[in-house]
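Model it.
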Amino acid sequence: MENIKFSDWNKLDLRVGKILKVENIEGADKLYKISVDLKKEKRILVAGLKPYYKPEELKNKICIVFTNLESRKIKGIDSQGMILAAVSKDETSVKLLQPDSNIELGSRIR
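Modeled.
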C-alpha cells in the first residue's frame, strides 16, 4: 500500500453520525438505503451491510461517515457518502467503526 501525504489525509471529511432509518432496496441482495443524522444535516447512503446486519441492529447506531466522498447513484438512489467499517480479510465479518463513548453528532474525525 502506498503512503499518502498528510495534506491528502486532511482532505477527508469524516464525521460522527447516527443511523435513523434502514430500508431494503428492491432487487438488492446486499444493499440498504440508510438515513444518517450528522446534526447539521441528514444524508441518504447506500451501504452493502445487509449480509452482516439486520435493519434493527443498525437503527440508532453511531457510525463514522465519509461525508465529502463524491455522490454516486446506486440502484437509482443518490448515495451521499460512505459508512466506514472494518472488514476481515476473508470478508466474512464487517463491523462499523464507532467512537468509544458519546460525542456530539457531526463531530469531525481527525
